[in-house]
Each structure stands twice: as C-alpha cells, then as structure tokens.
Specification:
This protein is α/β, with parallel strands linked by helices. The chain contains eleven helices and 13 strands. The strands form two sheets. Strands 5-4-1-8-9-10-11-12-13 form a nine-stranded mixed beta sheet, sandwiched between helices. A four-stranded mixed beta sheet has the order 3-2-6-7. The protein is globular and about 70 Å long. It binds adenosine monophosphate. Adenosine monophosphate binds next to β2 and α8.
Length: about 300
C-alpha cells in the first residue's frame, strides 16, 4: 500500500532557458512530485502515458521504488509541454502543450491506493481531481494544486475540488486571480472559505507563505549560486512538503512549518539543473544538509524590544 499518492501529468518536456536547452526530457507534475516525495515515504503515481514514452523513464521511476501500478499506458502520444524562461525566471512562456493521451485520461485508482492517507492532486483538470477525491476512502490529508487555466475556464469545478481538500498550494498571481484581490492574506482567506484549512502561496525565488487557521509563516527560498531551470520547482516543493508530513504524521502548525522547509530544500536542488536531472540523483542526506543551511540562513537573535527602542 502506498502512503502517499499523486495524480498529475507525466510527460515529455522541451525546456529553454537563457543558458540551456533540453528536448523531450522526463517531465510532468507527477514525475517531479514523486521523485521528491520518495526521499521520505512510499509514493504511488496515478497518470497516463502514450506508447512513445521512453522505457528509460519508467525504469528510472520504478528503480527509485515509486509505485507505478496506477500508471495507465494508452496507444497514442504522451503529454508534451514546451516552455521558455527569460532572465526573470519567475515568469515563463508556454510555447506548446499537446495533451495526447492525457486528453482522455480517466484516473482509476488501483485498490492498493484507495486507503492512502496522504493525497496530492497536482495541477490537472479539476473534474479529474474530484474523481480521485471520490475514489480515496478516508484520506488524512488532501493537498490540491492548480493553475491559471482552470481558474479562467473551470472555476466552479475548481471550487468544488477545493471544498474537498485540506490544503491548497497556489502561486501568488493565481491566488490573486482566484480571489480578485491584491492582498495575499485576503486571497488565502477567500480560498479557505471554500474548504482548505491552510493555503501555501508559492512566490518562486521569493519563497513561500503559509496561511492557516493556526497562524501565518513565511520561508524565503535558499539563495543559490546557480539557478538553471525552475521547471518542477512547485511540484518538487509539494513532494518534499507532503513527503515529510507523511513520514512524520505531524500536522501541527510546527510540523507543517518544518515540512515547508523540507519542500523548500528539495525544490532548491530541482532548480539547479535542467528538468528532473538533479532530483534523479538527490539523496536524503543532501536535503538534510540544506535544511541545516536554511536554519543558518534564517535565524537571528532578536534584541529585546526595550533595548531596541532604547
Ligand atoms: P511546475 O514548474 O512545478 O509548475 O511544473 C512543471 C511541469 O508541469 C512540467 O514538467 C510540465 O510538463 C507540466 N505541465 C505544464 N502544463 C501543464 C498542464 N496544462 N497540465 C498538466 N501538467 C502541465
């Protein structure tokens, strides 16, 4: 039985940055998420690929011990996405999206997935996220991700998916778009009124903000020497975050804050190489070392208030 399951895209990406280019490499939200989460716990993928999906990618995922019993293989083309980044790597242009077999994807959970306590609904059509929510029996924590496309075209369905989720991850621009307000705190409150008890707002190189019923917390991204490709940062953040939570089972505010730092640490490796290259070799020890670096990076001794005001 998998402790953590993810439904999302699995596909081939062509990536262009100001420094580099890679063609038809392993991509998709489920790939990034699963590689990250597997550093912590057992993870099972629910996704679809076509008959052109290289066996080497399947071998990589299976070789890591990722459960692929929920992976469907259909005749036709695998999901393909091409994206380009400029010097401001917080913004990207989608050059091409070809859904291929993903267009007719109907997620079907193997029985061994239905009792998974932790569920990540990566960015796919909200009706498919709802279908997975309906198939899991009694999950402990359901985390939902989405994107601008679904806010624009499927807002009601997305709101329904939110209603059945406990935590939502979303980027700053999309949170503002969903709520129609500039304040991220107000936008998070609007999202929480739909169901989630907590919202994690992703701000790219500026880190993440957690807004929950128990309080508010902010974590900067680590300051890296070399940023090559931000693709998959959000999904591998979610993998580190939810992987850690499912390993510890600690969903207190303190536990969730720690999980957020694990997500941050894992994502910091993802962006240091093209595609999922770095994630494929990443070890838990390397993540722990970066977790410790993060403590150094963000700790300071506060002067007492009376001393500060003299
Ligand atoms: P992230 O950078 O974390 O937002 O995720 C990047 C991954 O999302 C890439 O590997 C793409 O293959 C995948 N992706 C891009 N657009 C879509 C889409 N419309 N539906 C599902 N997955 C997508």
């Amino acid at each position: 039985m998998s402790t953590l399951i993810v439904v999302g895209s699995l596909g081939l990406d062509t990536l262009e940055t100001p420094f580099d280019r890679a063609e038809r490499v392993l991509g998709g939200s489920a790939a990034y998420f699963a590689l990250a989460a597997k550093l912590y716990t057992d993870v099972g993928i629910v996704a679809v690929v076509g008959d052109d999906f290289p066996e080497a990618h399947v071998d990589l995922l299976a070789g890591k011990g990722i459960d692929l019993s929920g992976l469907q293989r259909e005749p036709g083309e695998t999901f393909f996405w091409a994206g380009r980044y400029h010097y401001d790597m917080n913004a990207r242009d989608t050059l091409e999206t070809r859904l291929g077999v993903f267009a007719d994807f109907r997620p079907t959970l193997p029985d061994s997935y239905r009792d998974a306590p932790y569920v990540f609904l990566a960015n796919i059509l909200p009706s498919l996220q709802i279908s997975v929510q309906e198939q899991v029996r009694r999950p402990r924590l359901v985390v939902l991700d989405s994107m601008n496309l679904w806010i624009e075209t499927q807002k009601d369905q997305l709101t329904e998916a939110m209603r059945r989720s406990n935590v939502m991850t979303i980027n700053d621009e999309e949170a503002r778009q969903y709520a129609g307000t500039f304040s991220l705190r107000a936008a998070a409150r609007t999202i929480m009124e739909q169901g989630p008890r907590a919202v994690i707002i992703k701000k790219g190189e500026h880190g993440v903000i957690l807004i929950s019923e128990q309080g508010v917390f902010g974590a900067p991204a680590l300051l890296l020497e070399d940023v090559k490709d931000p693709t998959g940062a959000g999904d591998s953040f979610a993998g580190g975050f939810l992987g850690y939570l499912s390993e510890t089972g600690d969903t207190s505010f303190t536990g969730v804050k720690r999980a957020l730092i694990h997500g941050t640490a894992v994502a910091s490796f993802t962006v240091e190489a093209l595609g999922a290259e770095r994630l494929a070799t990443l070890t838990r020890e390397e993540v722990e070392a970066r977790y410790r670096e993060f403590i150094e990076f963000t700790s300071f001794e506060a002067a007492s208030i009376s001393a500060a005001v003299g």
